[in-house]
Amino acid sequence: MVYTGAITVAAAALLAALPVSASLYSKSSPVIQIDAKNYDRLIAQSNYTSIVEFYAPWCGHCKNLQPAYEKAAKNLAGLAKVAAVDCDEDSNKPLCGQFGVQGFPTLKIIKPGSKPGKPIVEDYQGPRTAKGIVDAVVDKIPNHVKRVDDKTLEGWLAESNETAKAILFTDKGKTSALLKSIAIDFKGSIYVAQIRNTDKEKASLELFGITKFPTLILLPGGKEAEGIVYDGEMKKEAMVAFLSQAAAPNPDPAPAKVKLQKSKDAKKPKPKDSTKSADPASATEEVLEEEATESPSPEVDTEKPVVLPEPAPPIDILDSEKELHIVCLGAKTGTCILVLLPNSPDEVGAAAVGSFSEVAHRHRLHNRKLFPFYVLPEKNGGFTQLKGALSLGDGLQIIAVNGRRGWWKKLPTDGTISAKDVTEEAIENWVDAIRLGEGTKEKMPEGLIPEEVEEPVVEDQIPVEEPIVVEEVKVEETKAEEPTASPEPHDEL
Ligand SMILES: *[C@@H]1O[C@H](CO)[C@@H](O)[C@H](O)[C@H]1NC(C)=O
Ligand SMILES: *[C@@H]1O[C@H](CO)[C@@H](O)[C@H](O)[C@H]1NC(C)=O
Fold first, then answer.
1. Of 41, 43, 46, 47, which is best to mutate to test ligand 2, by the most ligand atoms within 8 angstroms of its C-beta?
2. Domain-located, residue 248
3. Residue 92 pLDDT more than 80?
4. What is the rounded CA–CA span in Å between residue 220 and residue 191?
5. How many other CB atoms are found less than 10 A from the CB of residue 301?
6. What confidence tens digit (pLDDT) does each residue in 178-217 have?
7. Both 169 and 111 in a single domain?
8. What pLDDT, in 10s, does the model give residues 117-135?
9. Fewer CB under 10 Å: which end of the chain, C or N?
10. Do residues 1 and 133 share a domain?
C-alpha cells in the first residue's frame, strides 16, 4: 500500500504525543482499574477473591504480562476479580508502598478473611500466563458450599429453617468455581449445598425425585416441601436470575454510603438483616487459613471525609439512524434495549435512563456481560420509524429487540409507562427476564431490519447475549509458556 509509510509516521507521531504514563489497561479492558480511593470498597470489602497487579506503565515486563492478564480477567469473569493499580500515579504510591511493592509487576492474591475488610494477602509467584493465574485464583475462591449426603441432609435443612436454600445435585465430587461463585453472590441470604450422585445419597435423591444431573433446586422457604427445579442452562447469569426469586444477590461493590440522588424515587438501601446468624461460612469445609499476612489497611486518603458513590455513566445515545442499525437494528445484532426518549422528556423518562445506566454500570463493575442499552432520542429518524412500524404509542417507550432472531418486546406496564415501571428494581427484573428468555416476544415486522447489512465490524462490536461463565474454567493459551524455573523478572523501582 502506497500510504503505509505515511500512516506509520503519523501513528508514531500520535503515539509520541500521548502522555508517557497512559494507563496500561484501557477503559474497556476486563481488568478492573483500582486506586487508593476505591481499593477498600472494590477489593478489601468484597466477598470475592481478587488478584491485583501492581504495575508501572513504563515497565516492559508489565506490558508483556498485559495480554495474559486480560485473558485471565476474561476467564475469571463472574468468579473472581482481576484488578490492576498504576503505582506510577502519585496518589497510588502510598497504597503500593503499604503492599510492600518493590518491583513491577507484583501480583497479589487477596482473599476475603474472616472479618469483612480484613482480607488475606498472598504473593502470586506462579507463571505469568493466563492459565497459571486463573488456576491459582480459582484455587482461592472462598467455598461457602456445603457438601451434604443422606446423613447430613436433614440437619442441614433444619439449620435456619427460614433461610432460602439451593441444592445442586451433581455427578461431580469437586465443588465447581461456578457454584462457589453463586454461594458468594447469595452469601447471607441463600445457603448453598451440593449433593453427589452416589449410593450414599440415594435417599436425598429420592426425597427430591432427582433423576438427572446436574439439577439445581431452590427451596425459597428453606424447607424441602417447596422445591423449585431449575430447568435452564448451568450458566451463571441464568442461575443467579433463577435464585433471585428467593433473595437478591449481594451488590458488589456494596452500595456507597452517600447517595446523591435527589429524585423522590431514590432507592433506599436494601435493609440488611443483621440478626441473621449461622453464617453459611461456618458450615463449609474450608477453613480460612490465617497463615498469610493480613492486609495492610490502606486508609491512605485521610482528607477524604465522605465516600461518594461512583456515578453510573449514562447509557449511550444513538444520534443517527445509521448508528441505530449498526448497533441494534441490524440483521446480525443481538438483543439490545432501546429507550425511545421524546424531546423534553419528563421525570419518568429521566428515571428510566437513570435506572438503565445503574443496571449497566453494576454489571460492568461485576465484569458481567450484558446486552447493551441505548437512548433513541426523538431527533433520530429511527424514533418515528420504529414507533410507526411497531405501533408504539406516544411519549416514552421502552423496548427490547433482537435483529438476528427477529423479535421485539415492550417493557411491561399497565397502559403507559409510569415511575413504578422504571425503578432500578423493575428494570433489573425485566432485564433478567429477557436474559432468561421469559415472557412473550413479538415478531419483528418485515422491512424494519435491512437485509443486506454486511458489516464485518458489527459482530465484534456487539456484545451478543452470551453467558459469561462456563462451568469449567477453560483457558486456551496462545502464547508459549514462559520459563518458570527462575523467579519472574521484575523491573526494579
Ligand atoms: C424451624 O425452627 C424453629 C426454631 O429453631 C422451630 O421451632 C420450628 O418448628 C422449625 N420449623 C420447621 C418447619 O421445622
Ligand atoms: C458479603 O456477605 C455478607 C453476608 O455475609 C453480605 O451481607 C454483604 O453484603 C456481602 N458484601 C458484598 C460486598 O457482597
1. 47
2. no
3. yes
4. 10
5. 12
6. 999 999 999 999 999 999 988 888 899 999 999 999 999 9
7. no
8. 899 999 999 999 999 999 9
9. N
10. no
Q: Is 84 part of any domain? A: yes
pTM over 0.70: no
Instruction: At 157, give phi and psi (nearest 5°).
Output: -70, -35
342 and 479 both lie in a single domain: yes
Which ligand minimizes its atom distance to the CA of 160?
1
With b for 16 or more beta-carbon neighbours within 10 A and e for fewer, the 266-291 pattern comes to eeeeeeeeeeeeeebbebbeeebeee
Measured from the Cα of 158, ligand 1's closest atom is: 14
Q: Which of 187, 277, 362 to mutate to test the pocket of ligand 2 (most atoms within 8 A of CB)?
A: 187
Ligand 2 center–CA 285 separation, angstroms:
20
Return the CATH number at 49.
3.40.30.10
Count of domains forming the chain: 4
Using CA atoms, how far apart are residues 110 and 39, in angstroms rounded to an integer?
Answer: 11
Q: Is 190 exposed, middle or buried (0-12, 13-18, 19+ CB in 10 A)?
A: buried
Set of cell numbers at residue 263: 429524585
For ligand 1, atom 8: residue with the closest CA:
161
Residue 472: domain span: 1-19+312-444+465-493
Pull the grid cell for residue 13.
Answer: 507521531
